[in-house]
Specification:
By secondary structure, this protein is mainly alpha-helical. It has one domain: Winged helix-like DNA-binding domain superfamily/Winged helix DNA-binding domain (Arc Repressor Mutant, subunit A, Orthogonal Bundle). It is built from six helices and three strands. It has a three-stranded antiparallel beta sheet. The two termini are 14 Å apart.
């Protein structure tokens, strides 16, 4: 099960990466920017939970996005916490990439079939919830 889930995830990611290439974003960056799109910012812990990522892995990914000036990382209300804000540059890249993301999504739904995609997503949400 793990092998097949990871293989399918890699193939879907590669498809999205090819489509997003002209935007300058990779699938992982797009997902992080989308999940952090909040005018008030989002706490690192909350963002990691939404994305299903370890905090340390997310921190490394955010450091790159910060160097590329797509996000800012600020102190949170608690000294141990960080707040993530998408920058104007990040929001602009995200806005330009959104139609490409939607295109990739449509292509995969057409390829697999809408009913199968709905069932697949429902099953994946259940797996994530239970684990």
């Amino acid at each position: 099960m793990c092998f097949n889930l990871r293989r399918a995830a890699r193939q879907v990611t590669q498809r999205f990466d090819r489509t997003l290439r002209q935007s300058g974003l990779k699938t992982n960056q797009f997902s992080i920017l989308m999940a952090s799109y909040d005018p008030d910012g989002i706490r690192l812990t909350r963002l990691a939970k939404i994305l299903g990522m370890e905090r340390t892995t997310l921190t490394r990914n955010l450091a790159l996005l910060e160097r590329l000036e797509m996000v800012s990382i600020e102190p949170g209300d608690d000294r141990r916490e960080r707040k993530i804000r998408i920058t104007g540059k990040g929001a602009g890249l995200l806005e330009n990439a959104l139609p490409l993301w939607q295109q990739a999504q449509r292509e995969i739904v057409e390829l697999i079939g809408g009913d199968k995609v709905e069932g697949l997503l429902s099953g994946l949400h259940e797996v994530a919830r239970k684990l």
